[in-house]
């Protein structure tokens, strides 16, 4: 996957991909099956359903930011369109809303759904990173590391190493945290936050030595 500076940019890129290519993916899948089963024509109803899912996604997404009712509507959207890529994007949105409401249990539920069900590796990776952060906030350190270990896409290595560093730091495993942050910085050499985290670790090490 092309590298973007933030996860939000990654999610927006995936949204654009589905909006621009969703119907084409359905056509390609059906035409691909035609070679196996002798079908001559693709199923137009599937394409129409994909386009309808796109329109409904945009409406549900707008409703989600308005009020509490939007949360329920978004959940209903996932149930109705669970077999489309849009359902996983909506679950990411729901998880973000839940985090903002301090409902980490609901956030973990939505993110776990995406990790387990999404077909695109990039979507799975983003969900796994966010799930690990939620688990870190919940004090579930081993689960957070397990979530990170599931990500194999090199495009996300910098982010996964940074989250690892955060988990190790929370456990007071300073050497492991430093190694993880350093590995993350190798992937994102201009990341000022990572540099600050490493500088903070250096200060902690000096303070501990002088203490």
UniProtKB/TrEMBL annotation:
It comes from the Bacteria. One of its GO terms (cellular component) is plasma membrane. It is found in: Cell membrane. The chain crosses the membrane at residues 21-39. Pfam families: TPR_21. Residues 15-202 form the Ancillary SecYEG translocon subunit/Cell division coordinator CpoB TPR domain. InterPro entries: SecYEG/CpoB_TPR, TPR-like_helical_dom_sf, YfgM. GO terms for molecular function: protein-containing complex binding. Gene3D superfamilies: Tetratricopeptide repeat domain (1.25.40.10). It is a single-pass type II membrane protein. Keywords: Cell membrane, Chaperone, Membrane, Transmembrane, Transmembrane helix. Its main location: membrane. Belongs to the YfgM family. This is Ancillary SecYEG translocon subunit.
